[in-house]
Amino acid sequence: MGERLRRILPPVLTVILFLIVWEAGVRLSGIEDWLLPAPSGIAISFAESWELVQRHTWPTLQEATLGFVLGIGVALLLAVLIDLFPWLRRGVYPLLIGSQTVPIIAIAPLLILWFGYGLFPKVLIVALVTFFPVVVNTVDGLSSADSDQVRLLKSMGANDWQIFRLVRFPQALPSFFSGMKIAATYGILGAVIAEWLGASEGLGVFLIRSQNSFAADQVFVAIVVITFWSLVLFSLVQLIARFATPWVYIEKKENRKGEKET
Amino acid sequence: MKLKLESLEQSYPVAQIRRQVIDQITLTVEEGTFISIIGPSGCGKSTLFNIISGLERPTAGRVIKDGREITGETGYVSYMLQKDCLFPWRTVLENAVLSAEVAGENKRKALERAEELLSVFGLKGYANEYPARLSGGMRQRAALLRTVMANQDLWLLDEPMGSLDALTRERMQDWLLGILEQFPKTVLFITHSIDEAVYLSDRVVVFSPRPARIKDELTIHLPRPRKRELMTSESFLQAKRWLWEKLHEEE
User: Fold this and answer.
1) pLDDT 10s digits, A132-178
2) A162, A170, A250 member nearest B132 (Cβ)
3) B 195-234 residues with CB below 8 A of A?
């Protein structure tokens, strides 16, 4: 427990110190509220707009989670297919990497044009953003199976499907989850960007409206909420990873122990 | 006769030529014998195991087990590599039943059988631990448990103790002999240690540098069960000296 505290304490202290300097800076310099509010001002604004923020948070969360699940599902499926069929790896995988140079913000208007202002195009945008890190990480994980483990299985008479199920897939799981963690940090962001381009509710709409009415304090409120939910999504993925791949955490722990002993 | 290797040859294309790795290896292995293979590193011993286990097909020659040709066919031997190859995502028990799973046997029955054997392998209380928690010796024993669980009567052990420290290694040797008394098997054993070869084996086969040929072989007449005291006996030292000379003589 003491070790955990030692790890958490320094960043927490840094944040507190930062907030104090910010608060003092705003008060002493007398900077205008609509330009840079003090943390205390943001907290007050947060309390005042609580209900409004809530109303705008749920649609964003809905788009983000649906898009996240869709993106990851498709990514996992495609990664497995790319791994099973070498011609897919040669024909599709390079294009997939190349497609990442196309900025999502440039594709989003197209999706809005095609699918309108409803939920679907936003889910699609989130899926597009979260899909990529998961595919790349999972494909990497699947193709880096230990050749001796594969040989051992083959010598037992295992067929290709058994080799996939017993070695390649489980050993790709940690990479899959690291991709998913990156995707989790993109999920809410993707939904907010989608809302910028056309929506009647959501944190993206809240942001634009705050900007238009020069309410910097509300922009900060939105930032806090977006960060909070991104962290929640990230922690959720972390939690699932812990349950699905317990050996990864045990290995890390044993390695730390080993380092201490030497 | 358990296993017969008939004029095995293996060569791989390298640039414009074919590099010969194994040259005319013929060997007969009687049921229940322990045969060590000793030779310079990189001489093709592991290639031979790949061929016997069916992972590779020889360019010429045949592998015959129990009177049936199995050249290029997998699933007839239990192969243990120098690396323990325990799957880090499986517990000790789950690793042990791997071959049963591959063979499509009842997993629950296999788990029960593995659990009964845990204490024999000094792994009691570690059934549900992941390999990361085990020491080097324990990992090797878990790998051997997996080998036993494969239910094959022919074992190929490729330097299974190569990565262990000297003390653990000696303990593992005695322990392996004990296991083999309990579960009689035919064993082919690759090692770099002359001591280990003499101590464990009924016969020691000396390989030449690449391409691997059988240079000579020695029958070990030490009594079984083997005891550590034997290692200083005259016949042990004689065998050791003979093998050392064979290994170091010029071609």
Assistant:
1) 999 999 999 998 888 899 999 999 999 989 999 999 999 999 999 99
2) A250
3) none
Best probe of the A interface among B49, B76, B89, B95, by most A CBs < 10 A, is: B89
* pLDDT tens per residue, range A36-46: 999 999 999 99
Say if residue B146 is in the same domain as residue B158: no
3-state helix, strand, coil in chain B (%, to 5): 35, 25, 40
- A261 has a pLDDT exceeding 90: no
User: Quick one: how far is CA B156 from the chain centroid?
Assistant: 3
Count the domains in chain B.
Answer: 2
Task: Indicate yes or no: CB of A156 within 8 angstroms of CB of B99.
Answer: yes
Residue B251: what pLDDT? 57
Q: What CATH number did the domain enclosing A234 receive?
A: 1.10.3720.10
The edge-to-edge listing of strands for the beta sheet with B214-219 is B78-80, B154-158, B186-191, B34-38, B203-207, B214-219
**DSSP codes of every residue in B24-76:** EEEEEE-TT-EEEEE--TTSSHHHHHHHHHTSS--SEEEEEETTEE-TT--SS
